[in-house]
Every structure is written in structure tokens, then in C-alpha cells.
């Protein structure tokens, strides 16, 4: 009986060790310190050793941001129900308009629970464009004479080492279960 239990545990351990995330990105996120929706400084140092999911949004967005934010709120709730320790970070791509107060009001349209969700602003358009391009391999561009901003629509899973592990659609056909599974894999490999 004990041999069977021991064999089962060894097989289970080997199976758990073998899980990897296909096509892992391994993109380092550059250091940043911005301001969150409460007006407090928040940056990469606050995320050190934590798994987090990021996206890029803005409060005046007329197209992709409302569904992306709704999907992020749903993913956050699903992660909470599964007991996963994960942070969520939304970078405003329109920092000249998006004050901490505007970001807080915007997020509350989607959830009342902002405990581990950090909506960031407090930087220049050039700074967020550079961070998006260098760290997340995506575009942020505000055309002249337009209040809309062109930006990527992905969710980014970032590991405790501060590197982007994987990207996912944040607008339609969001792979919630895959993201949650990947969070578990990253957390188990710590």
C-alpha cells in the first residue's frame, strides 16, 4: 500500500514539474514608478516577487478599453475565487487626461474591489510609449488633434522576476482558464 502511495506521489510531482508555458516571452519589464488611482507612488519595486497581469487602457476610450477593463475585472474575480495571489496593473495611455481620481471612478464602473488592482498614471505620453514598446513590445500613440489613443489590446502575464511570460487577447475570446493555469504554473515554479 505504501509503495503505491509513494509511486503516486512521485508521478504527481513529476507531472507538476513538467508543466511549462508554451512560447514563453521572457521580456524584462523596465523599472518604473508612477502614481496609482489612490494618488500613491506605485512601481516595479512594489511588484517584485509577485505575479501580475498588465494591460493598457484609458478612460475616454470609445472602443476596446471598456471590454478590456470588464475582462480584467472578471479575470481578477476568477483569480480571487481560485485563491491565487496575483496583482493587476492597468497603465493609462492618456496620462495627461487620466488623473488618479478619473482612473478610480472608471474602474469602479467595473468592480468595487480594487484591492490588488493598480491603475497607473503620472508620467508623460513619451514615457508610457517607451515603456510599452521596450517592455511589452506594443505601441502607444496619440494622433495629433484626436482624443483617442492607439494602443495594444493584450493582457500580459508578468512573473515574479519582472519578466513578461506570455501575452493574451484582452478584447475578445479572452482565454481566462489558460491565463489562470499559466498563473499557477508561474507561481509553482518560484
From TrEMBL:
PROSITE patterns: PROKAR_LIPOPROTEIN, THIOREDOXIN_2. Pfam families: SCO1-SenC (PF02630). The keyword ATP-binding does not apply. It comes from the Bacteria. The lineage of its organism: Bacteria, Bacillati, Bacillota, Bacilli, Bacillales. PANTHER family: ELECTRON TRANSPORT PROTIN SCO1/SENC FAMILY MEMBER (PTHR12151), LINALOOL DEHYDRATASE_ISOMERASE DOMAIN-CONTAINING PROTEIN (PTHR12151:SF25). This is Cytochrome c oxidase assembly protein. Gene3D superfamilies: Glutaredoxin. Belongs to the SCO1/2 family. It comes from Geobacillus thermocatenulatus. Keywords: Copper.
Amino acid at each position: 500500500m505504501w509503495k503505491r502511495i509513494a509511486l503516486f506521489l512521485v508521478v504527481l510531482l513529476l507531472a507538476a514539474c513538467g508543466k511549462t508555458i508554451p512560447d514563453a516571452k521572457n521580456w524584462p519589464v523596465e523599472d518604473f514608478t508612477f502614481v496609482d488611482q489612490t494618488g500613491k507612488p506605485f512601481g516595479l519595486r512594489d511588484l517584485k516577487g509577485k505575479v501580475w497581469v498588465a494591460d493598457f487602457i484609458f478612460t475616454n476610450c470609445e472602443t476596446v478599453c471598456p471590454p478590456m477593463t470588464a475582462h480584467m475585472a472578471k479575470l481578477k474575480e476568477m483569480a480571487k475565487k481560485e485563491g491565487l495571489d496575483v496583482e493587476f496593473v492597468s497603465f493609462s495611455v492618456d496620462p495627461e487626461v487620466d488623473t488618479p481620481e478619473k482612473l478610480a471612478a472608471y474602474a469602479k464602473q467595473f468592480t468595487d474591489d480594487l484591492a490588488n488592482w493598480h491603475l497607473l498614471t503620472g508620467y508623460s505620453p513619451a514615457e508610457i510609449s517607451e515603456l510599452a514598446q521596450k517592455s511589452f513590445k506594443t505601441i502607444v500613440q496619440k494622433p495629433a488633434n484626436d482624443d483617442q489613443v492607439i494602443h495594444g489590446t493584450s493582457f500580459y502575464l508578468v512573473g515574479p522576476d519582472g519578466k513578461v511570460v506570455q501575452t493574451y487577447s484582452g478584447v475578445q475570446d479572452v482565454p481566462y482558464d489558460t491565463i489562470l493555469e499559466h498563473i499557477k504554473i508561474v507561481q509553482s515554479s518560484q
